[in-house]
Specification:
Radius of gyration of chain A: 19 Å
Number of helices of chain A: 9
Number of strands of chain A: 0
Oligomer: homodimer
CATH architecture of the largest domain in chain A: Orthogonal Bundle
Structural class of chain A: mainly alpha
Order of helices and strands of chain A: HHHHHHHHH
Shape of chain A: elongated
CATH topology of the largest domain in chain A: Tetracycline Repressor, domain 2
Largest sheet of chain A: none
Distance between the termini of chain A: 53 Å
CATH class of the largest domain in chain A: Mainly Alpha
Number of domains of chain A: 2
DNA sequence: AGTATATACGGAGCAATGCTCCGTTTAACA
DNA sequence: TGTTAAACGGAGCATTGCTCCGTATATACT
């Protein structure tokens, strides 16, 4: 009843193009710190009408989500490789440091995490799942290998890390974040 | 030149009253989760004009700051008593748990921390200082007593804690936060 | 008490922004 | 080349933040 598959027409090429443009402009703006740039402005820079923007992304959150989704995916995808290459705890450590680097390099992700934090939008929840899944497996291995306490909750670590990432404090920021990674790991050991 | 002390008139009583009303209404609304309630609405509920609200609090941030300031102060003030009563590490642990409880009980503070996180407003910075000062001393003692590593940066712990507090996840939230406290402490030990 | 004046009040109204609606245009398919 | 689903675009409405300024009143002084 629900699965009526209609013979859809191939998506229009101009639609795709505009979507790309919008994402590109938005990403540039967001990473440049223009976090609350008006959506009209994004549409203008992308050379499309405001209506077009809203058809592709029903609200601001959806746009942000779309912009950072690729980044989050890449971050999550890096986990298996690290897990294969290093012993469990080192893999986790490497991944957490990667997490920090990501935010340090471009100021990407942080806003998405902030939104994720709010918990308002179902979209963010999905992004959160991607990351949670990645860290879940890493922690799982560390527990299985006997290095970590069994009661360690992976999400706790992710939350803490997200918290630190949010602070856009001065130059010491990055080292501070890396210090926290070590504290968290030391605290998780058996 | 700058310190011209003018013989100010005593503040008007109706002004004080209205200020109190506004704070009361705002606090009720905020803790009830109506985080982005329109300022007009707050003014209406408090039975004052919108102009009055803006005279007392020049913008939304200032209002939030004012609402949570007292709470943050109380939290910070609790630190010395704990330090006097318990050994250093236990005092720190107790304070961190208190921090969690505060947020668990009423959903106060979290928004303020979020703002603090943004670093946009000088006001929030001041609030942040209050908390930082409190935790600084607690950690200092723990380091001095030889329980904590010397390189522990108090702000790191505060950041992590703030990060966790932000997530308003399901019922497991509080226990999750408390778990993290223990991880952080374990990871900070020598 | 009466008066002067700093202080506070209140809300109309402007500007910015999010989002919708719908007539027009165009790419896909036959 | 004609038909049509899909996409476009921007006028315009609703909401919200904030300002401005004429009005009201508590305080201080005589």
């Amino acid at each position: 009843m629900i699965d009526e598959k209609k013979p859809r027409r191939r998506p229009r090429s101009d639609g795709q193009r505009n979507r790309e443009h919008l994402l590109g402009v938005a990403k540039t703006a967001f990473t440049a710190g223009e976090l609350d740039i008006p959506l009209d402005e994004i549409a203008r820079r992308a050379g499309v009408g405001i209506g077009t923007l809203y058809r592709h992304f029903p609200n601001r959150d959806a746009l942000i989500e779309a912009v950072y989704r690729a980044e989050l995916d890449r971050l999550a995808d890096a986990a298996p490789a690290l897990a294969a290459q290093y012993p469990p705890v080192e893999a986790l450590r490497a991944w957490m440091l990667l997490f920090v680097d990501y935010i340090a390099a471009k100021h990407v992700i942080a806003p998405a995490l902030n939104g994720l934090v709010e918990g308002t939008s179902a979209l963010y929840a999905q992004s959160g799942m991607i990351l949670q899944n990645a860290i879940d497996r890493l922690v799982e291995s560390a527990v299985a290998s006997g290095d970590f306490k069994a009661e360690i909750e992976p999400l706790d670590l992710l939350r803490a890390l997200a918290g630190v990432s949010n602070f856009s404090a001065g130059p010491g920021w990055e080292t501070s974040a890396k210090r926290l990674v070590d504290i968290l790991i030391a605290g998780s050991r058996v």
